[in-house]
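[job 0412] stage=complex_fold ligand=iron/sulfur cluster status=START
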Amino acid sequence: MKEFLLDCSLEELGRIVTPPYRAKQIFQWVYQRYVSDFGDISTLPKAVRAELNERFTLNAVSIAAKQKSVDESEKYLFRLADDHTIEAVLLLMREAQEDGDRVTRQAQWTICVSTQVGCKIGCAFCMTAKGGFKRDLSAGEIVAQVLAIKRDRQIPPEKSLNVVYMGMGEPLDNLENVAKAIGILSCEFGLHISPRRQTLSTSGISPKIETLGKMNLGVLLAISLHAIDDETRSKLMPINKAYNIESIIDATRRFPIDLRKRMMFEYLMIKGVNDSIDCARKLVKLLNPLRAKVNLIAFNPREESNFERPDRASMEAFQRFLLDCGVLCVIRQSRGIDIDAACGQLRERLSPLLRHTVS
Ligand code: SAH
Ligand code: SF4
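[job 0412] stage=complex_fold status=DONE, emitting structure tokens
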């Protein structure tokens, strides 16, 4: 089987092609001019194109289906070389831009990528967990999701976008490949997405948070906290039995972060489980030592689930309590909920609607 060119960092490609500056050219053609065939790289000698073609393929993923939401978000189902499928989502966000003393809001694309086929962590509320774990994605398979979406939507190469590692899988359970993908995505001759525009979300594997911190990649971190006491958290997320809340907060405190940025905490609200003001009070206490920002997410119900979505009023009261205590907190809107693209709804299957759009 051919190797994926997208698995190569610039340095690695520079050791393969001669002279090494050709690696930069190849990166530019692939990531900035969106070529899908080595034969189209007209600045390369024919022999080099043939050599590349012999050894590599540019197609680490192919689009099996896509589905657009009313809010312009779009869910992609990608087929991998071994026929597994993964999902990624293009989300249209509004982002505050500071322009002198004026703050304007700008449309901003965010791409949510998968890091594994399935997931081992098995959280009780998560759809991805249902399908079990199949395998890790390679760095190139992660990078390919961003490139394929950018190319498919004809997003201009120079348009900056954000990447969140919040699709299928636990990124810290595939740290080596995810770290490599962060590097390849940020390469200035490639997609040039600064690590500060990349957010890795984790269920909280404390020792891996430490390892990632020591790598000093400049990436942002989001912790899927979801509960303020170990008993509740262990019921929702079995990983908490191995790495409890205290160990996560400890690891997070040592994580290097840009002073202008904050550590993000995802808090999935489930009716009657963790949505009381008492929980909000304990959350404030827990986050006290950190420069934190809390994202409240309403539980997205799925079939065969015992959990319920919280009332809007209880989410707002929770948010108000945090804000009054000086903790930055937003209620994250569920985007793409009509296409099952919202958090926790990604899994390896075609949703009934998608089946009609398979190309
Ligand atoms: N494995 C990583 C990243 C992928 S999950 C993690 O757990 O952080 C991305 C986010 O979606 C996590 O915060 C996760 O807790 C949340 N999520 C999972 N299932 C959900 C559901 N049913 N409703 C809302 N959010 C969910
Ligand atoms: Fe895995 Fe994250 Fe889903 Fe938990 S929430 S099962 S860690 S993908």
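Residues 348-359 have pLDDT under 50 and may be disordered.
[job 0412] exit 0
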